[in-house]
Specification:
The chain has 23 helices and nine strands. The protein is an alpha+beta fold. It binds zinc ion.
């Protein structure tokens, strides 16, 4: 593909001076140039925000030319000249998009957010141009028709199936008069999902609980208070304490703060994000998205959006999903009710003259756990220093897969907190590169995830190694203490590492099906397998050493943790499954209309017989 750039260059220089200047800009654009970095990783410090949009446009143009070459080929369509060539096309565009999307999610700014909005319709239209390209589909179809007699490998059969399905699901079989409407839906949906995420981030960042009276800190661990003081200081509120909706601030606060009114304030701040009737309100977006998704599914012959999505996954149908989640709810809900009654008894016993509310659950559950199991999560933190957990995780990968993790300090990063590793086989062969970005900041979206700057594939007989990244929002170090994780953060870390290994250990020829490009309901398998190792007693002994004394986590503490591990599972199951059921309810609507979002959600929760103490 690289050879295509000079051809365009020559043409531009031949034609106009104006184009000449444009081309000068193009050659200065690092996103379009060859990357002379170690392992060809993105040269972050050389990328300017202003590079993205012109680079996207150029890369789309080049991708279109590559597709034209496939379509206009004189050769009869075969697997190699159509399916494999299509898989290999768009390499430059993918490279640019992987960098942009990942940086925009992990370290955004208003300029990048604007670019995302400018680029979304371009990318949506470009994708539609491919899936709705009739001549291209003809070629793909003719190969698919003879798939049994082509002597394809298992991997090739999978690529062919996935390619053919992408065309069909992308509207290739639609009547000509529906294609424009279909394009409009895709374009609109791409913008709406960006806007939804931006609103959520703005609402997360805009809400703060500022504490001025030291008494209101009662119950909070010293490290949490210290972190809140540092947050206040960084925002010019020296001497006060600031709590935010970022999980490392929110969760300890609702778990430990004795001040009930403040717990309520912060908790409501969290659950009401996007529902405040302001410019960041997401209700109208939800409404428009579910309607457009339904319309698109109907056009493609599916009854609902859920049918459309699941058809491509292992679960296949909404009925199966409802059956699975329903059985978990049936098991979880009675347990959650018992838990709620236990918490209410504790409130009554404490002389609290009120009914258990959602912002009380974490607080009283922690108290009850201490009472029942003489154990609280806080006792574990000193053993879960982030660096130790990370090395424990690496040791597991070494023992299971023979991998080594060599820290690299010479690779470009997009933020100073990002650390990088070269992942090697036991014999020193490079498997891939791993970026890790651990702490929350206002430029990062919430949650934890794994992504790729480059997926693994084989090009011209050579293995292209993957460049993988995991992004988290973990408890930050303070001036006095290292980052110490909660047990939840430890298991999240192992979980994301499992996804990362999935990407790193990919061994495929074709990029479209490599790494984590598997059905959505399979992709969580490697992460869950890895997550299970986090609390295995033998594994914990390898990494869980006290940050001050160096003492290995005592057996007694591990035993207590183990005893308590079924505690609060009713709540955890119901909280999770109710969100999944609500998502299913939104996406199994069969009627396009204006929904009252809150009324719909309340009806859905009522239908699943949710208890009001859990939201
Ligand atoms: Zn996951």
């Amino acid at each position: 593909m690289k050879h295509l750039i000079p051809i365009i260059l020559i043409l531009a220089i031949l034609f106009t001076a104006c184009e000449q200047n444009k081309e000068k800009e193009m050659t200065d654009n690092i996103l379009l140039a060859e990357w002379n970095t170690p392992f060809g990783v993105p040269p972050f410090e050389q990328i300017k925000n202003s590079d993205y949009l012109p680079a996207y446009k150029e890369a789309i143009k080049i991708h279109n030319q590559e597709i034209e070459e496939i379509v206009n080929s004189d050769e009869a369509p075969d697997f190699e000249n159509t399916i494999a060539t299509l898989d290999a096309s768009g390499e430059l565009l993918v490279r640019i998009n992987n960098v942009f999307e990942n940086v925009n999610e992990a370290h955004t700014n208003p300029e990048l957010q604007q670019i995302a909005k400018d680029v979304a319709p371009l990318l949506s239209a470009h994708e539609d141009d491919i899936w709705l390209n009739e001549q291209l589909f003809e070629r793909v179809k003719s190969i698919n028709d003879q798939k049994e007699i082509l002597g394809l490998s298992t991997e090739q059969k999978m690529l062919l199936k996935k390619t053919f399905d992408s065309f069909v699901r992308g509207g290739a079989n639609l009547p000509a008069d529906q294609k424009d409407a279909f394009r409009d839906i895709n374009s609109r949906l791409s913008l709406l999902s960006i806007q939804f995420g931006e609103n959520l981030l703005a609402e997360t960042n805009n809400f703060k609980l500022v504490i001025e009276d030291e008494n209101d800190l009662s119950g909070l661990p010293a490290s949490v208070i210290m972190a809140a003081a540092e947050t206040a200081k960084s925002e010019g509120m020296d001497g006060k304490w600031v709590f935010t909706l970022h999980k490392p601030s929110l969760i300890p606060f609702i778990t430990y703060a004795d001040n009930r009114a403040n717990r309520e304030y912060l908790f409501k701040g969290y659950i009401e994000r996007g529902n405040n009737g302001n410019e960041y309100d997401n209700k109208a977006i939800v409404n428009e998205m579910v309607n457009l998704r339904l319309k698109r599914a109907n056009m493609l012959g599916f009854e609902t959006h859920a049918d459309y999505v699941l058809d491509n996954n292992m679960a296949k149908t909404p009925d199966k999903v409802y059956e699975l989640i329903g059985s978990l709810m049936d098991a979880g809900l009675p347990v959650a009710k018992i838990e709620a009654a236990e918490l209410q008894a504790l409130i009554d016993q404490d002389g609290g003259n009120f009914k258990l509310e959602p912002w009380d659950w974490w607080y009283y559950a922690e108290k009850l756990k201490k009472e029942k199991y003489a154990f609280d999560d806080g006792a574990l933190r000193p053993y879960f220093v982030l660096d130790n957990v990370k090395h424990g995780m690496f040791t597991v990968a070494e023992k299971l897969y023979g991998l080594q993790f060599v820290e690299r300090t010479d690779l470009p990063v997009y933020h100073p907190e990002v650390v990088t590793y070269e992942v090697q086989e036991a014999d020193g062969t490079t498997v891939g590169i791993l970026y890790m970005d651990f702490f929350p900041r206002e430029s990062k979206r919430g949650g934890a995830w794994m992504t790729s700057f480059r997926k693994q594939y084989v090009r011209n007989g050579e293995n292209v190694i993957p460049v993988i990244q995991m992004v988290c929002n973990f408890t930050k170090p303070t001036a006095d203490e290292p980052s110490m994780l909660s047990i939840d953060e430890v298991s999240t870390m192992f979980h994301e590492f499992g996804h990362s290994l999935h990407g790193l250990l990919s061994d495929c020829n074709y990029v479209s099906i490599s790494g984590t490009s598997v059905p959505r309901d399979f992709v969580e398998l490697p992460s869950q397998i890895m997550e299970n190792w986090a609390t295995h007693p033998d594994v914990m002994k390898m990494y869980a050493t006290h940050y001050e004394t160096g003492e290995i986590i005592p057996d007694e503490l591990v035993q207590k943790m183990d005893n308590a591990n079924k505690f609060n599972q009713g709540f955890i199951t119901v909280e999770f499954m109710s969100a999944a059921l609500l998502d299913m309810d939104w996406h199994t609507i069969t009627e396009e209309k204006q929904y009252d979002v809150m009324a719909f959600e309340n009806a859905s929760l009522e239908n699943m017989q949710m208890i009001p103490e859990i939201v």
